[in-house]
UniProtKB/TrEMBL annotation:
It comes from Popillia japonica (Japanese beetle). Keywords: Endoplasmic reticulum, Heme, Iron, Membrane, Metal-binding, Microsome, Monooxygenase, Oxidoreductase, Signal. One of its GO terms (cellular component) is endoplasmic reticulum membrane. This is Cytochrome P450. One of its GO terms (molecular function) is monooxygenase activity.
């Protein structure tokens, strides 16, 4: 006991004798021993609310120690552009969280989103760009539309099989539709909604999406790893199950039918052909890149659910979307991607959902000793971009806490987005799949609202500063509208 007390006293004396901030570094709260300033994050439901409050004390760029990690938080658009664009090369790394390694075969650099920037990652992104960022006038865009509209027909048939006289669990069907849109578009393959393995993988992807959007003490206190051993095994098992499904149900068939003398049939073919042509690519790079992009369907499914949650709380929004879709289709057909330009309010509703949900941008890491706004930033420092402030700050929006899709419409009724609105980040690490997210979210939302009146059925469980909803989330009441479709 005497030794323990002595040790505690020594740690306390060491802490009190430390300078408050290193010379040249941004100011910030004085860290506690061992945990740093992690205790401050408990004051709000999302750490980005804490960051906003701390910025009022320490300025738009401040330092904060979270456990063993030295961090910097950037809180205004000018400085965020400095980090993501002007000095993007200096901040191309990602946090070295143990969870990220577990999800990608022991090496987070297998993931495009969670890897450190490198020439290999640039190559992997270039392979994906044609398929994941299709231009409006391209054949790929036409294909995106064809896949989405065909799957929507299947989705609506599945919905009508439910007992709609009582609240329904809509999320699993939405996710299944999103997953099939992605597998059909990227792999020329789709699955029955009742396929047991398919349902398991869709659920697992959703579990992972929720997981990625959470924070854990072990991220910043890695010595807690033994306490999280079961959790880490669960992550590894999830990832392994997804990989086995993709190999057995998608990759093996593509390899058996690959025609080396013909253009690639889809993204999967393109990856396999590139594997044979590029000596710097290996099998791990290919399988994980495909897994990364297929997993993007979870982001769409969750965004749809968050949008529906907002709409049922604002019935006037649903009525306006219904009026818009009825005008465009005349009630004689389902809306498709090429109707988006004529349905600006529907698109604006999606943007307003992204703004109010304010899902965090993945943190960056300094890969060299550098500066932000004249403050020194050491190599290895984690940089948090506070887009919560960009999305909900009084300096950027009028009445920011209100849900108003019309804020994204010009006086002429066109969709407009201010420069500071960057829900998919910006710079060289911007989300490469954002166009697919926008396209398929629009198709699903427009068709759901066209065919059903949707109301809440109890409590809506939403987490602030997060576009993810729990895998087992809220139910909704769907009442079919009278349409000629």
């Amino acid at each position: 006991m005497l030794v323990l007390v002595t040790l505690c006293v020594l740690v306390l004396l060491w802490w009190m004798s430390r300078p408050k901030n290193n010379p040249g570094c941004a100011p910030g709260p004085r860290p506690w021993p061992i945990i740093g300033s992690l205790h401050l994050l408990d004051k709000y439901k999302t750490p980005f609310q804490v960051f906003t409050e701390l910025s009022k004390l320490y300025g738009d760029v401040f330092s904060i120690d979270l456990g063993t990690s030295r961090c910097v938080v950037v809180n205004n658009f000018k400085l965020i552009k400095e980090v993501l664009i002007a000095k993007g090369a200096d901040f191309g790394g990602r946090p070295d969280f143990i969870r990220f390694h577990k999800l990608f075969g022991g090496d987070r650099n297998n993931s495009l989103a969670l890897c450190d920037w490198s020439s290999l990652q640039r190559t992997r992104r270039s392979i994906a760009r044609t398929y994941c960022s299709p231009r409006f006038t391209s054949l790929q865009y036409d294909h995106v539309n064809d896949v989405g509209t065909k799957e929507i027909a299947v989705f609506l048939r599945e919905l009508r099989k439910l007992d709609l006289s009582k609240p329904c669990d809509l999320k699993p069907l939405v996710l299944a539709a999103c997953a099939n849109m992605f597998t059909q578009y990227m792999c020329s393959t789709s699955f029955d909604y009742n396929d047991r393995d398919f349902k398991t993988v869709v659920r697992t992807f959703d579990e992972i999406f929720w997981e990625i959007n959470q924070g854990y003490a072990v991220d910043f206190l890695p010595w807690l790893l033994p306490v999280y051993s079961r959790h880490m095994k669960k992550l590894s098992d999830w990832a392994s199950g997804i990989r086995q499904f993709i190999l057995a149900r998608i990759i093996d068939e593509h390899r058996a039918t690959l025609d080396h003398g013909s253009p690639p049939r889809d993204f999967t073919d393109a990856l396999l052909l590139h594997l044979e042509e590029d000596p710097n690519m290996n099998w791990q790079h290919i399988i994980f890149e495909l897994e990364d992009f297929l997993g993007g369907h979870s982001a769409i499914g969750n965004l749809v659910m968050v949008t529906l949650a907002a709409i049922v709380q604002h019935p006037e929004v649903a009525k306006r979307i219904q009026a818009e879709v009825d005008t465009v289709t005349g009630g004689k057909r389902r809306p498709n991607l090429f109707d988006k330009a004529a349905m600006p309010y529907t698109e604006a509703t999606i943007w307003e959902t992204l703004r109010t949900a304010s899902s965090p941008i993945v943190p960056h890491v300094a890969t060299v000793d550098t500066e932000i706004d004249g403050f020194l930033v050491d190599k290895g420092t984690v940089v948090f971009v506070n887009n919560y402030e960009l999305n909900l700050g009084q300096d950027y929006w009028n009445d920011p806490l209100s849900f108003k899709p019309e804020r994204f419409l010009s006086s002429s009724g066109k969709v407009v987005k201010p420069a500071h609105f960057i829900p998919f980040s910006t710079g060289k690490r911007t989300c490469i799949g954002q166009r697919l997210v926008q396209c398929y979210t629009f198709i699903i939302l427009a068709n759901l609202i066209q065919h059903f009146d949707i109301k809440r059925a109890g409590n809506l469980k939403l987490q602030p500063g997060c576009v993810a909803v729990p895998p087992d989330c809220f139910q909704l009441m769907l009442t079919p509208r009278r349409t000629t479709d």
